[in-house]
Specification:
Aspartate Aminotransferase, domain 1; 7-stranded mixed beta sheet; 2 domains; 371 residues
Chain lengths: 371, 371
């Protein structure tokens, strides 16, 4: 295969990556400079400031991890946990399960609080689990479960944990920039995300933020973080927290340009307007799918607008139709995972994809398929 | 800071990133598609095939890690080591030291074989260390020490280890695509690199390859890899080794386009021609610097052409002059690290930067500074 290899553009309505605006693609192509060039450090500082705004936090230690969403997920856990620590983890989908798996590999004692896929974790059950394991180092939930389309309530858990010594860790990979995350009001101690969902930037960086008490925990560790690459205590000097900008690793320069541009676009639109846009088109899609006989997978009252999971009318096999959607209409949607495999579509309306035009194009294709 | 933020292009003659050709920047800006889109999988498969060629290997499990060079370094160690394993590590610069630090964090017993910075590790000393610790799980060296400019001979160590149960792990972050690496002829079991050095691609991916016996070791682990994100046994299904392409994490799509384009350019030039180009301009720079009173830091006979470390004439303080080079001439070179801090420049002639024009521009600026 020689350059330029063929790439047919797709309308990205899967669980991510989401459609990338041309301004962001153009930012990617700006000239590469060094990772210690004052020009680049200024871009990174500005990215970090803009991330604080989107996260809803004043946390000083806020930056993009040099990897994709699962890298910041691993960074969140690895910086807090030491072998033997107890971690209470809510598991009602793939990403909660991944948190538990990662924590186990780190040598933590994991207390899984499980719930049926498609339902929220009852905050009272998580609080009860904490009463049984009050010395737990952290309690973790997924805010927007990409595998099910469920939106987890955070407020009650955060308020409760704020009065304990247990840190609150929240996965916002699919929520950041699409629905309010509000790290500080929700008393979240460690919060991480990805760029390729509601921020509308290609995959390759993964924002993370640590509260002052998370930072205190990191500083009082007995053993260093198992991962040198993801060690926040080393990274803090490079990302601008120390007195000197010390080299740690080579950051993905051009991806940082793209993230900057994505965050500029978030500011231009305004967070409230952006949340309203995601809410409106998501609601419309869910209504229209139900009218067409689709069955929504996530429980009512806790559905994410940006990620809709739905079983096809009449229990139709989803995979062949999804393939037609991609091959004939250049529209990507996702299939189900785990117990929902083969049963549902996962439809993302995220970032630049959260428009009525996306909904129109998808529904027109769906209607044509049913004819 | 609003878009587009100002970026002055620089001539990147530091230890990386190296200058990025416009074709590669344009590849970055191609439309983002999904990580399971057959179009993307075809690009990834082709990247993996092209990487085998550059690595000089027929290893089936060859792919880019979703992070920068230090991520593949961590992946190399984390996939092989379990707590309690012995790791023999050659340390004659920052990157050997980083290998040792990472291995310690993984719970390995590290046998450091140290050497003065600027000198190679005598293969006989490493072989001797192995005779003392014959049950060592791995022996690791850095092929191109970016902190010193030293080129480590590999052949004798590789041939020796091939007759033992110890795996040979080699850091080729700064050598891949600039000088011959030859994974198979050198009996290397785990070899990793980065994109932003002699491949001339922005930072954000990190090629790695595992030999069949490394893979066997991975499959016979007692405990899973400490890192879920970097676990080669999970990644192998996604990168094309398994019977089915299974989702693992979202790969950095646009960076993969860029790496593909970079590897196409390597093929167009031809590996031998590329090595000759790096060798010629590196030699010329080193000769010209010596004529100007610079003292080369790496020992004679073992100097990397692509990374020259040199103390300034008359023991001049390097940092202020390096700043002038950047601010007035838009040329980036690197400073010294560790014991060489404040004493040397590290000058990269890598990838698209390995040209006589780069040398001309740098020497003209150096001459102007000395006037």
């Amino acid at each position: 295969m020689s350059a330029p290899f063929p790439i047919r553009p797709r309308l990205l309505l899967g669980p991510g990556p989401s459609p990338v605006h041309d301004r962001i693609l153009q930012a990617l192509a700006r000239p590469t400079v060094g990772h210690l060039d004052p020009q680049f450090l200024a871009v990174m500082d500005d990215v970090n400031a803009k991330l604080r705004h989107v996260f809803g936090t004043s946390n000083s230690l806020t930056f993009p991890v040099s990897g994709t969403g699962s890298a910041s997920q691993e960074a969140a856990l690895a910086n807090i946990l030491e072998p033997g620590d107890t971690a209470i983890i809510g598991v009602n989908g793939v990403f909660g399960g991944r948190l538990a798996e990662m924590a186990r590999r780190m040598g933590a004692k994991v207390v899984d609080v499980e719930e049926e896929w498609g339902r929220i974790l009852d905050p009272e059950r998580l609080i009860q689990a904490h009463r049984e394991y009050p010395a737990a180092r952290l309690l973790a939930v997924v805010h927007a479960e990409t595998s099910t389309g469920v939106r987890q309530p955070l407020e009650d858990i955060g308020s409760y944990l704020a009065g304990t010594d247990t840190l609150f860790l929240v996965d916002t990979v699919t929520s950041l920039g699409g629905i309010p995350v509000e790290v500080d009001p929700n008393h979240i101690d460690v919060c991480y995300s990805g760029t390729q969902k509601c921020l509308g930037v290609p995959p390759g960086l993964a924002p993370i933020t640590f509260s002052p008490r998370a930072l205190e925990r990191i500083r009082s560790r007995k053993r260093p973080c198992q991962s040198w690459y993801l060690d926040a205590s080393l990274l803090s000097d490079y990302v601008g927290e120390g007195s000197e900008r010390k080299y740690h690793h080579t950051a993905p320069i051009n991806m940082m340009y793209a993230l900057h541009e994505g965050l500029v676009m978030v500011e231009e639109e305004g967070l409230e307007a952006r949340f309203a846009r995601h809410a409106e088109v998501g609601k419309r899609l869910q209504d229209e799918l139900q009218e067409r006989g689709f069955t929504l997978f996530a429980e009512e009252g806790h559905r994410l607008p940006q990620l809709t999971s739905a079983a096809l009318p009449g229990g139709a096999d989803e995979a062949p139709l999804r393939k037609v959607l991609l091959d004939r209409y250049d529209i990507e949607v996702g299939g189900g995972l785990g117990p929902a495999k083969g049963k549902i579509w996962r439809i993302g309306l995220m970032g630049a994809g959260a428009t009525n035009e996306s909904v129109d194009r998808l529904l027109a294709a769906v209607d044509a398929l049913s004819d």
